[in-house]
Amino acid sequence: MLRYTLLRILGAIPTLLLVIALAFLMVHAAPGGPFADDRAVSPEVEANLRAAYHLDDPLPQQFLRYVAGLVRGDLGPSIRYPDRTVSELIGTAFPYSLQLGALAIALALLVGVGAGTLAALRQNSSLDRIVTGLSMTGISIPVFVVAPVLVLLFAVKLQWLPAGWSGASGAGKYVLPVITLALPQLAYIARLTRASMIDVLGRDFIRTARAQGLGTATVVRVHALKPAMLPVLSYLGPAIAAILTGSVVVEEVFGIPGLGQFFVRGALNRDYTLVLGIVVFYASLIVALNLVVDILYGVIDPRVRYR
Fold first, then answer.
1. Residue 262 placed within a domain
2. pTM over the 0.85 mark
3. CA-closest candidate to residue 224, choices 202, 195, 201
4. Which of 279, 300, 211 is nearest to 28 (CA)?
5. Is residue 66 part of a domain?
6. CA angle 178-75-94, nearest 5°?
């Protein structure tokens, strides 16, 4: 198991370095600059500002300096928030994004696994068709369409829930953003669970368990659920990553003070260090989550470790 884990960690390092290099090049290739705004800045002042942030150095030298800072755990200073570092901004905003993402993935797992299991147990029934149809709908509609529709229906028309976080209190402010984030992943998890459960329920060891007189609930809970969850477990890494990165749009729509707002503002203001810091942070989180999923997959299915 230790060798399997070390190999996965070593394989994640080049991926992370490639993401950092591509993000660095794309940010610096974007037109404009952090000081090219509406304010009239003289060429001398702009040259001094670029020198202060080492933006006048050759691009390879800037990249090596940035990577050296990352190795030390330093994401650099924010250009648009000069009194705060990028690490401080991420530390302030990420708990909101993490809370939102954790609630969304918990909802997606709870409802998705339950709906997929019921659909598999009643294959080709009306319930199965309803779950399949709703899953396809949830996959097809993007979050930036779902969010305004939910706000219009439940906040404006029915006035059951607050439209955003501004001035809202209590658990009600979480409902719409959490549902918006969870819907696409809930749909994927329901379809994966249904397909995997149908496959597992047709295997020999399930027929043996049924022949021993075990009830359907016991067969599913004790024998079928664990092997049926392997595809869902494999999908959890990308699903959590999609929820965390998808929260960028949702946070902006609902006015949540998470990383999404800082990312959008940093991109609009060409705050190189802030945008890069958030991209690197998200990339590291995604790589770590996929690494955890790979390790858990090896724990649940020992055959993976010996391939």
1. yes
2. no
3. 201
4. 279
5. no
6. 15
State the CB neighbour count (10 A cutoff) for residue 184. 23
Burial class (CB in 10 A: 0-12, 13-18, 19+), 137: exposed
| Tokens 């998470």 belong to residue | 258
Amino acid occupying residue 36:
A
- pLDDT one digit per residue (tens) for the chain, 307 residues: 667 667 777 777 888 888 888 888 887 777 666 666 545 566 666 676 677 766 767 888 888 888 888 888 888 888 777 788 888 888 888 888 888 888 999 999 999 999 999 999 888 889 889 988 888 888 888 888 888 888 888 888 888 888 777 766 777 888 888 998 888 889 999 999 999 999 888 888 888 888 888 888 888 888 888 888 888 887 887 787 777 766 777 887 888 888 877 887 777 777 888 888 888 888 888 888 777 777 776 666 665 555 5
The β-bridge partners of 85 are: 77
Count CB-CB contacts under 10 A for residue 227: 17
- Is 47 domain-assigned? no
Torsions phi, psi for 53 (to 5 deg): -100, 10
Q: Helix, strand or coil for residue 155?
A: helix
What's the rounded Cα separation, in Å, for the pair 133 and 129? 6
Contact criterion met (CB below 8 Å) for 276 and 262: no
In the chain, the number of structural domains is 1
- The answer to whether position 115 is within a domain reads yes
Separation CA 254–CA 104 (nearest Å):
15
Task: From 97, 69, 307, select the one nearest 89 (Cα to Cα).
Answer: 97
DSSP state of 222: I
- Report d(CA 297, CA 295) in Å as an integer: 5
For residue 246, the domain's CATH number is 1.10.3720.10
What are the two backbone dihedrals, phi and then psi, of residue 85, each rounded to the nearest 5 degrees? -85, 165
Range(s) of the domain holding residue 163: 93-272
In whole angstroms, give the CA distance from residue 17 to residue 261: 25
